[in-house]
Amino acid sequence: MTTATAFSPTYVGGVACAVLGEGGPVTVFAHGLGGTSAETRPLAARVPGTRVLLDFRGHGDSVALPGGWDYDLLADDLLGVADAFGATRVVGLSVGAGALLRVLSRDATRFERLALVMPAAIDRGRDDGATLAIRRLGRAIDDGDVAAVTELLLAELPEEIRDRRGVRLLLARRAAQLATRPAPRPRRPDRPLADRSVLRAVTAPTLVVAQQQDPLHCADLAAELAAALPYAQLLELPPGGVFWTATASVAAALAAHLAEDLT
Predict the structure, then answer these.
(1) Residue 159: which residues within 8 A CB-CB, separation 6 or more?
(2) 66 CB neighbour count, 10 Å cutoff
């Protein structure tokens, strides 16, 4: 096990990790498609112990992934980091939640506590407007068109949030970062699970976090996932809730869930 005593970037098999805090328990945070550890930092703010925020390969400060990603590759990254740090808890955001589901399909009892935030898929592929939006975003990133990337990121937000002070500036900064490297693309059609029935073997208490009116992360899908997991509870937030309207609430809920059973 790697000992984490302070914020210190490190690498595990080409996967960059930001390490926050110290002591136990150790929780790994896995971001969404096109994201980095900065995306999961607000979710980790109140979680006790050591927090390890990874950048999947092909993202952030991690090594390039020229062949594209699939859920096996993401699951390998997540599990490799978790094993290196001796993590017993994990938080997966969006595609990171999908990577966690793939890990659980291999070993349903690997973690003691789980949180899946805004899951994007379970056992079916996406062929709706969300897929088209991701493709448009990928083209804008590859073109290095920061303005177009910014507008596409804004389009994902509820209208009442888009005009908030500082929102456009924050998204423009993220767009500029995204445009510095090729867009992460799937190497093949894939989904986290072949059959959600494998989740019946998961015994870890699980928190599933959804937000309403999110076209990329449907609240109904999150409810389906919570129903498929034997020991899950669903937290449904208002539009934009995870990062814009209820950030403190979701951070507190994650901290409380991940701190349970500590002595």
Answers:
(1) none
(2) 9
For the question of whether the overall pTM of this predicted structure is more than 0.90, the answer is no
For residues 256 and 173, give the distance between their C-alpha atoms in angstroms, rounded to a whole number: 31
Taking domain 10-126+191-259, whether its CATH number is 3.40.718.10 is answered by no
Residue 241 and residue 235 in contact, taking contact as beta carbons nearer than 8 Å: no
Task: Calculate the dihedral angle through the C-alpha atoms of 15, 125, 128, 78, rounding to the nearest 10 degrees.
Answer: -20
Q: Which residues of 135-170 are buried (b: 16+ CB within 10 A; e: fewer)?
A: eebbebbeeeebebbbebbbebbbeeeeeeeebbee
How far apart, in whole angstroms, are the C-alpha atoms of residue 44 and residue 31?
11
At CA 147, angle to CA 92 and CA 162, rounded to 5? Answer: 60
Note the pLDDT tens digit of each residue in 152-203.
888 777 777 787 778 888 888 888 888 887 888 888 888 999 999 999 999 9
Q: What is the DSSP string of 206-227?
A: EEEEEETT-SSS-HHHHHHHHH
- 15 Cβ contact partners less than 8 Å away, ≥ 6 residues apart: 54, 55, 56, 57, 62, 63, 77, 80, 81
Q: How many residues does the chain have?
A: 263
What the block records as the tokens of 47 is: 């979680």
Q: For tokens 């990337």, what's the residue?
A: 149
- Crossing angle between the packed helical segments 37-44 and 247-259, to the nearest 10 degrees: 70
Return the DSSP state at 36. Answer: -
